[in-house]
Amino acid sequence: MRKHMEILPKTGFIQAQSRFNAQLKFLPRISLSKDAMELFDEDTGVLEVPLTVLVAGQVKPVPFTMQAVVTCSELLFDRAQVDFGFCSVNQSVRSSVRLTNTSLLPQDFGFLGVPDFMEVQPNDGFGTLLPQETLEVDLIFSANKAKEYSFQLHCKSGINRDFPLTCQAVGVRPPLQLSHSLVQFGATAVGDRSTAMLYLTNHQTNHQTINHQNQQPAPPVTKDTMAPPRLFSFSLPQPSDLSITPSAGRLLPGERCLIQVTFRPRLLDEDIREEALRLFLRAKLLREKELERSRQAELEAKKDLPVETSKGKKAPVIPKNSKVSDVPQTELLTELPEPADIQPGSEHFEEARASLLYSFTQRYSEHTVSCFVSDGDPPEEDLQAQPAWSSFNTLYLQLQCPTVQPPLVVTSNNGHKSIDFHQVAVGEKVVKRFTVQNISKESLDLRSSVLDVHGPFSLLNALRCIRPGETHTLVLAFSPSLEKKFSETLEVRCQKMTLEMTLRGEGVLPAVTCSHPGGLLDLGYVLEKESTSHVLKMQNSSAVAVVFRVQLASLCPSRPPGGADGVASLLRGYSGSQLQPTVGTQNLSGLSVFSVLPAEGSIAPGQSQDLMVSFQPDHPSVCYSDRMTVELRNKSVVCVLDLRGAASSHNMYLCGGDPLTVPIESLLPPLITAQPQITGQR
């Protein structure tokens, strides 16, 4: 036992009435079972060593026994070699090994001298193993060069024992490379979006060979030939709140492509349908409880009714405001709808969606997106064939996506974030509103993006700061000037999110025709103070309702006063019977001699509208005239009619022939001259 035990000091001197301390060191070696076969039990690990202390001048020695339980100090890996396989540069490959403490004592361990391209977790490779404990250790290999790797990891115990682990890997450089392999999005509200920009680069200029004999990729080999173009394609998980633009493409050697990764969190339809069923069930239970309370109240009211006496006194009736359920029992016992029956856009669906938004807290998700890279273009014989690709050329993009509650939600239009003005006649204006609410605990200062100043959409009111729980209504107008479809995005911004509203509308040219071709409309002769009328039909052939208005030149505010148009006719002279001013003689009473009913209105799509033109003079004249213009709200003219009429005081009148007077009435009274006497010659 001298190889395994040591007593210090071996000899000592003890004073009278005092104590002497000696140190016993037990250092078991591997050969203990051979050196002390009679004292050591290999099955139990128990060691009993008898010792004797000899005292000078004392005949009887002092015996004592040293007992110990000897255990091994081995740390065992579940495998002797770790092969990471092919690993792309700037990517990581993880492999797990199990480390077991076979000892009956706790042991400290640590991985020392770990290379830069390796990472050991947990706790960076340090820890303590309890007796018989097994720990799963993650070995993460990150190649920094395209080469073969062969190395050892050394795990040392607390007693400085070394347990090596052999590792090997092959680092390869894919033909394409991402500028970032990890994207950490900021906290994004539901309904908002976050965007990250990456670059995908084809850095290769030399050809990389592949072992076609066994269809296994080989390490990069440098040749003099130029590398072929590379096709790439990103594969997103489905369903996903992520989008990548472009998701596929082709890169030539040395070419670089800008990649846009967008994270737009939303509520899943399955979650919304489950919430709708929960709300439906809760409402059903509330209705049943209300019905039960109403029944109890009705029974109690009947018990309190006094019996009708013989004197004819009537029992008091139940008050009108007593809570007696009017809901039929069949409605209360309605079965729960199937989740598939709750369609997006329905009332139950939107109520459930709003409920989830108001109760939303936070959510975190991680996604790994694969980018597959081809070995080249498809063969020229079949361009639709699937191009060959290598697994170790695949790129991986890790995305970390935290989601939070939106501070701003749309409460109008069933929560939809799109406003459709539908078809609007060119030149007309349609106004719509939508309301937003602050559901956060902070005040929000609202701002908006700038709409196209030359576009048809416009924001009519200003934005303001809204406190928690308050709402604000935005007023939007759509006034198209061209016959085409329009679409624009309005961003309502606050401190923590941007709410995007999609504005849509279509400009339509109104197609309205008149039954009269235009020009002259002669209402003929009538007796003074009597009237005649003519009916015109307006037909709307467009797909939208149009608003029209009828204008008479005699009632137009811009008409020159004092019959200036008649004076101009006199100055220009006249020679034909068709010469007539725009506005001729009017009634002496001041009322318009021509009238149109209705003077304005709206014509539905595919419908028609009758216009009644009336002529009612109050004195005899052949110079009644006016101009009628039918125009739409967008100032487009449907038709222009020159109205003409004449009035006579007698049933018999003479018409036709050459005009003997000017086509307007003189402002002076008629000149009365004496009739000359005709004398006969004798």
Automatic annotation (TrEMBL):
Keywords: Cell projection, Cilium, Cytoplasm. It is found in: Cell projection, Cilium; Cytoplasm. Residues 77-171 form the CFAP74 fourth Ig-like domain. Residues 1-71 form the CFAP74 third Ig-like domain. It comes from the Eukaryota. InterPro entries: HYDIN_VesB_CFA65-like_Ig, Ig-CFAP74_3rd, Ig-CFAP74_4th, Ig-like_fold. GO terms for cellular component: cilium; cytoplasm. Residues 418-502 form the HYDIN/VesB/CFA65-like Ig-like domain. This is Uncharacterized protein isoform X1.
